[in-house]
Design goal:
The chain has 413 residues and is an alpha/beta fold. The protein has three domains: 70 residues, Winged helix-like DNA-binding domain superfamily/Winged helix DNA-binding domain (Arc Repressor Mutant, subunit A), CATH 1.10.10; 150 residues, 2-Layer Sandwich (Nucleotidyltransferase, domain 5); 174 residues, ATPase, nucleotide binding domain (Nucleotidyltransferase, domain 5), CATH 3.30.420.40. It is built from eleven helices and 15 strands. The chain has a five-stranded mixed β-sheet with strand order 6-5-4-7-10. It has a five-stranded mixed β-sheet with strand order 13-12-11-14-15, with helices on both faces. Strands 1-3-2 form a three-stranded antiparallel β-sheet.
C-alpha cells in the first residue's frame, strides 16, 4: 500500500532532522541549523523552541559571527533523555545506562553460566532498577530499555513483537522476553538481535555516523551479523537478517554439532575455545582472558584465530559480493587486539580470493564500542527509534508518529 503524508508528519520529520543536526554538529547557532537543514528561519525558530521546552536542547554560549550581535549557540542536552541497555548471552549479562549523548553513566556486569527465562528476567529487572537508582533518576527520565539476545528471533504469534529461543540457552522456547520484562520494569522494552543492536550503536554513536551502508560482524558467545543499509537497520522478515553464523559449512568430522546441521558459527563458539585451552592447563573463562594468551602467542589461540580468519574471509567475500557495502566492521565481546588480529588475517586473504579486475572493495574497520558493544547498541535503540530522522516518519502510520517528548510511561497505556 502506498501512503501519503501531510504537514503534521512533515513537522515530526523536521523536528528529528533539527535535533540530529544539533546532536552531530552542535553547538550551532539557529542560522547554522537553518543552513544545514535548508529550512526557513521561522521554521527553525519554532522547532528549536519545542526542543528546548522538551529539555532535549539548550542554549549554550554566545558566539560572535562577524558583524552584529553575537548569536546563541544550541547544544544537545545530555540529560534530556536516558535509556538502559541489557546484553544477555550465555556467559554474561551486561547492563548500561546511557544519556542522550551516548555516554555511559552506569554499568553492571554479571558472569553467568546459562540462565532459565525466570532467572534471566529476575536479573534483568534488578539490573534496570539498580542502574536507574544509582543515577538518581525517576522512571519518567528513562525513555526505555533495549534488550539484546543471540538469535534466532521469531515474530510473536499474535504479531506483537518477537519471541526468542536462543540456541545458546537450554530450556528457552519462544519466550516473549520484551513483554515479560516490560511488565516488571514499567518501561517500554525493545528486543533486538544483539548483532543488529551493535550495528545500530555503531551507526548512531561510532564511526558508522559517516558510513551509510555497512555490515557488522559481531563476536559474542558465537558469531552474528548486523546490517545497516542507507543509514537504517535492515532486520529482514523474521528479525534475523545478517545471521551469518548459521550459514551451512563443511566441518571437521570430530566437531560436535549438538545435533544441529553443520554451520560456520560453530568455529567461533567461545565455550569450545575455553574448553580446549583449559585442557592445556590455561585458566580461561571470559574473553578478557584471551589477551594474556595473545601476548604469549599461545599456539592453541593462534591456531583458533587462523582457522577463524579462514572462515571469516569467505564470509567477508560473500558479504562483499552480495551487498557491496561501504565497510565491514569487526566488533563485539572479543578484546580489541584479538579483533584486530582477526581483521588483519582476513585482510591478507581476501585480495587473492577476489575475481580479477575488481577495483573497489569495502573497508575493514575495527568497531569503536569495545567489549560492551552489545549493551551499548541496545541502549541506543530506544533513543534511536524516537529521534532518528528516518523516511518512514513521513508516512501515515496506523498511529500518529511522535518523538515521545513526554514521559515514556504514557507509552505503556
Amino acid at each position: 500500500m502506498l501512503t501519503g503524508t501531510n504537514l503534521e508528519y512533515t513537522k515530526q520529520y523536521n523536528l528529528r532532522i533539527v535535533h540530529e543536526v544539533i546532536r552531530l554538529y552542535g553547538p550551532l547557532s539557529r542560522a547554522d541549523v537553518a543552513r544545514r537543514t535548508q529550512l526557513t528561519g521561522q521554521t527553525i525558530s519554532n522547532l528549536v523552541r519545542e526542543l528546548i521546552d522538551s529539555g532535549l536542547v539548550y542554549e549554550a554560549e554566545r558566539r560572535s559571527e562577524g558583524r552584529g550581535a553575537p548569536s546563541v549557540a544550541l547544544a544537545l542536552n545530555p540529560d534530556g533523555a536516558y535509556a538502559v541497555g541489557l546484553d544477555l548471552d550465555r556467559d554474561h549479562l551486561t547492563g548500561v545506562l546511557v544519556d542522550l549523548a551516548g555516554e555511559v553513566r552506569q554499568r553492571l556486569f554479571f558472569e553467568i553460566d546459562g540462565a532459565t527465562p525466570d532467572e534471566a528476567l529476575e536479573m534483568m529487572a534488578g539490573a534496570v532498577d539498580t542502574l536507574i537508582e544509582r543515577q538518581g533518576l525517576s522512571r519518567s527520565q528513562v525513555w526505555g530499555a533495549g534488550v539484546g539476545v543471540p538469535g534466532p528471533m521469531h515474530p510473536a504469534p499474535d504479531g506483537n513483537g518477537y519471541v526468542v529461543k536462543p540456541k545458546a540457552f537450554p530450556g528457552w522456547h519462544n519466550v516473549p522476553l520484551d513483554r515479560l520484562l516490560q511488565e516488571r520494569v514499567r518501561l517500554p522494552v525493545i528486543l533486538e538481535n544483539n548483532a543488529t543492536a551493535a550495528a545500530i550503536g555503531e551507526r548512531w554513536y561510532g564511526m558508522g555516523r559517516e558510513i551509510r551502508t555497512f555490515f557488522y560482524i559481531y563476536f559474542g558467545s558465537g558469531l552474528g551479523g548486523g546490517l545497516i543499509i542507507r543509514g537504517e537497520p535492515f532486520e529482514g522478515r523474521s528479525g534475523n537478517a545478517g545471521e551469518i553464523g548459521y550459514l551451512p559449512t563443511m566441518l571437521a568430522g570430530d566437531m560436535d554439532t549438538n545435533g544441529d546441521s553443520p554451520h560456520v558459527g560453530l568455529h567461533f563458539t567461545l565455550s569450545r575455545l575455553y574448553r580446549a585451552l583449559r585442557e592445556m592447563g590455561e585458566e580461561v573463562h571470559a574473553p578478557e582472558d584471551l589477551e594474556r594468551l595473545l601476548d604469549a602467542q599461545h599456539p592453541r589461540l593462534v591456531a583458533w584465530m587462523d582457522d577463524a580468519a579462514d572462515h571469516l574471509a569467505g564470509l567477508v567475500m560473500a558479504v562483499e559480493y552480495l551487498l557491496d557495502p561501504d565497510a565491514i566492521f569487526f566488533g563485539g565481546r572479543l578484546p580489541a587486539r584479538v579483533l584486530q588480529g582477526l581483521m588483519d588475517r582476513v585482510a591478507t586473504q581476501v585480495p587473492a580470493r577476489r575475481i580479477g579486475g575488481k577495483e573497489v572493495a569495502p573497508d575493514l574497520v575495527l568497531a569503536t564500542a569495545g567489549v560492551d558493544a552489545g549493551a551499548l547498541g541496545v541502549a541506543t535503540i530506544p533513543l534511536y527509534r524516537f529521534f532518528n530522522p528516518a523516511a518512514h516518519v513521513l508516512m501515515k502510520p496506523a498511529r500518529k508518529p511522535q518523538m515521545r517528548l513526554k514521559a515514556p510511561l504514557a507509552m505503556l497505556g
